[in-house]
Amino acid sequence: MMILTLFLRPLQGLDGTNGMLEPWFESKGLGDADQVLAYFAVSKLGEPPVDGKTDTNPEGLTASYGKWASVVAERLQAGGLTCKVLNKEAFQKQMLEKLIWISAFMLVGARHPGTTVGGVEKEYRSEVSSLIAELASAAAAEKGLVFEEAMEDRLCAYSRAVAHFPTAVKEFKWRNGWFYSLSEKAIAAGKPDPCPLHTAWLKELKVV
């Protein structure tokens, strides 16, 4: 079975699925399902898709893994899109980076109403940098992974590629909610909050 996981919000307000889907997959017995992490968008019917390339990843960000990963990659490439075939760990790290991106940039943007994703990268870089580092540390500890260096640079490059996107904290269960659940679990066990800045800003905005 192939699961298509969309992490780039299509244009014209047509939402993709942005978030942590692993718990849902596992609850449905789909923990080993093939997946595609799709970074492309179509602005309107009939127009060619826009590929998810950035100045740090000109080879494109779309990735797939699993039994049928190479078949999907070939079909996307035949349509003029890029697609890497990754093993499960590499795919999971890239998926988590995208989760960190949307959770961090949307939360910082929400603190500054009217700010776009590009505005966060340009005007509130120190805030989003601190949050990226915090969320990355928590995700790495939870999943037992070591992220590649220069994550902040990659995520900021992606923000420049989709600079016009508006910011808002929504789909909480699938996005920031995963990190908040790590905080709740740690606090319930008498441990320090692994994401104190994230928690404080969620409370500031009355999200939790």
Automatic annotation (TrEMBL):
Alphabetically sorted, this entry's keywords are:
Signal
The signal peptide annotation in the UniProt record is 1-16
- Keyword Signal annotated: yes
Please name the PANTHER family in this protein's record.
NUCLEAR PROTEIN (PTHR34044), PTHR34044:SF4
What is this protein's name? Uncharacterized protein LOC103328234 isoform X2
Q: Which organism is it from?
A: Prunus mume
Instruction: Cite the source lineage.
Output: Eukaryota, Viridiplantae, Streptophyta, Embryophyta, Tracheophyta
